Amino acid sequence: MIETKYQHWLNFEGLDPELKEELLHMSESDKNDAFYTNVEFGTAGMRGVLGAGTNRLNIYTIRKANLGFAKYIVDHGTEAMERGVAIAYDNRFMSKEFAMESARLLAMYNIKSYVFTSLRPTPELSYAVRHLHCFGGIVITASHNPKEYNGYKLYDENGCQLVPHLVKGVIDHVNEVEDELRIDVTLTKEQESLIHMIDVEVDAPYLDEVMTIQLHPELPKDNFRMVFTPQHGTANESIHELFKRVGYDVVYVEEQCNPDPAFSNTLSPNPEEPKAYELAIDYARRVDADIVLTTDPDADRLGVAVKQDGEYQLMTGNQSAAVLLEYVFSQRKELGLMPEHPVMFNTVVTSDLGEAIATYYGVETEKTLTGFKFIGDKVAKYEKTNEKEFVFGYEESYGCLVKPFVRDKDAMQACMMLAECANYYKKQGKTLIDVLHDLYARHGWYLETQKSIVFKGSEGAANMKAMLQRLRDHIPSHIGAYAVVKYEDYGTQKVLVNGMMSDLEGFPTSEVLKYYLEDGSWIAIRPSGTEPKCKFYYCIKGASSDDVHAKIETLYAAIDELIK
User: Fold this and answer.
1) Which of 255, 372, 413, 524 could bridge across to 402 with cysteines, CB 3.0–4.6 Å?
2) Who's near 332: CB < 8 A, 6+ residues apart?
3) Do residues 510 and 369 touch, judged by C-beta distance below 8 A?
4) Bridging pattern class, strands 136-140 and 445-454
5) What pLDDT score does 252 carry?
């Protein structure tokens, strides 16, 4: 089967010459990984390694995905086709080519498109869909993945990534395509005219909206300095413009400001990894900056490092969000801006500290599955019913949303609000770390960590599936010294409490297992939706820093034993 697919690609007349050259130099293991399956088109779109093969991102697999999306739009009629699709892309290899190929294939089905003339942040695409009243959107990006990757994400008319019941219609059409190599894209002049290029007509109103999230725009900007890096990605120009408007003193990491697909001057484009901050912290030390901000390449995630006792300390996504929640909720309360029925959204693998802060300020918390599309979908729901009003949304993976004119995580908003937050507390003689410690004093100590096991190739995928099945078949009564007081299986939609099994309600099916421990801690296990690995999330609660750090070591060992 693998050899048949390989030979079909190798001998296909007109195959892209670079892809053919790659095929000619493939080892047997390369062939196996490139052809053992089709690159998965799932609820998060597609993400994968660039290259030749059915399990790779290339011009042919992108055409296949777009053919499915085009037929989905046609199914919704001529109005959907006329409203069209907004398209954005990041700095990666082939991103612009994939974006233009997407527009061309949509045009072949007489669907209008609006393509940015150059790279833009992912949240601006979400805004563009709403601003231009499009039927949907496409972003070509692999977010924070290494340079070998690219990806393809789809958005609905609300500017939200397609949720499972919507994306199923696209997947069904994608699966109808038997041979991606035989999708011929030929346009008439009239169809070519359906492709429209956009830039400032969306840039300006989007940045104007971001400016409106400020709670204390009058706050002096003196004696406060930041270092910022876009990690060679899409945030550079937008952040320059935003911080110039507000008047912040910002030093930019010049070596990382150019949109380089090879990420030449960063050790990692991922704000979750400490090595992503190394050059920026060097800058910060030289200029004595208060904080370091870094966005991922498509500018939907934000990471921060804070000067604390003369050193720069990284904050996790859970920690920076907790401090933002404290600032936003306290100030909205003080300014009389808290609505009557406020609601905050986060996910089932997000720290419980955020919910404790929300409860303190009278804000309800609703949980969703991992994936900001589920938060965006909740926002749309309450926008229609007016039962509750959105005041914040975030994931543990460094993504948050302050105001819902965008329906995806938005690092532009996060940068603006975190800068204001840090400046506000500095004027009170506090750092963001000080504020975090104040929260621990009020709500208890929390330690959130994450570990991963990589499962590559067909054998790895089978091993990961087998591991999850073993865990389902043998639900532990204890993890280490701690009793499991509740177990949730989002895949089988079951919950176990006190030996009684019942249905888990309110969530779509998803491969997530979650164990609640008697001390208030929990552990969740979830395969990544974008990389070949399984993630283990820990939220540890305790009486002190020493307490939570001692607990985490014992629980690491207990989980290692459990998954053997």
Assistant:
1) 413
2) 215, 338, 391
3) yes
4) unpaired
5) 98
pLDDT digits (tens, 9 = 90+) for 537-564: 999 999 999 999 999 999 999 999 999 8
Give the catalytic positions in this structure. 143
- Pull the structure tokens for residue 40: 């998965």
> Is-contact 249 313, C-beta < 8 A?
no
What is the CB-side half-sphere exposure of residue 223 using CA atoms within 13 A? Answer: 8
C-alpha to C-alpha distance for 277 and 273, rounded to whole angstroms = 8
- For residue 152, list its beta bridge partners: 46, 140
In degrees and rounded to multiples of 5, residue 446 shows phi and psi of -130, 140
Q: Any idea of the CA torsion for 478, 452, 281, 142, to the nearest 10 degrees?
A: -140
Radius of gyration of the chain (CA): 24
Q: How does 420-431 read in b/e, with b if 16+ C-beta sit within 10 Å? A: bbbbbbbeeeeb
- Which residues are paired to 226 by β-bridges? 250, 291
Where b means 16+ CB within 10 Å and e means fewer, 131-165 reads bbebbbbbbbbbbbbebebbbbbbbbbbbbbbbbe
DSSP string, 258-314: S--TT-TT-S-S-TTSGGGGHHHHHHHHHHT-SEEEEE-TTSS-EEEEEEETTEEEE
Cβ(23)–Cβ(10) under 8 Å? yes
Q: Phi and psi (nearest 5°) for 225?
A: -135, 140
DSSP assignment of 46-108: EEEEBSSSTTSBSHHHHHHHHHHHHHHHHHT-HHHHHH-EEEEE-SSTTHHHHHHHHHHHHHH
Find all residues with CB under 8 Å of 531, minimum gap 6, and list them.
47, 145, 454
In what side-by-side order are the strands of the sheet with 302-308? 249-252, 225-229, 291-295, 302-308, 311-315
Nearest to 155 by CA among 300, 259, 12, 19: 300
Q: How far apart are CA 412 and CA 122, in angstroms?
A: 10
Q: Outline where 121-235 has alpha helix (H).
A: 122-131, 164-176, 189-192, 200-211
Please say whether the beta carbons of 236 and 266 come within 8 A: no
Tally DSSP H helices, then E strands, for the chain: 19, 23
> If phi over 0 gives left and psi between -120 and 50 gives alpha, with beta otherwise, what is residue 154?
beta
Give a three-class secondary structure readout of 429-491: CCCHHHHHHHHHHHHCEEEEEEEEEECCHHHHHHHHHHHHHHHHHCCCCEECCEEEEEEEECC
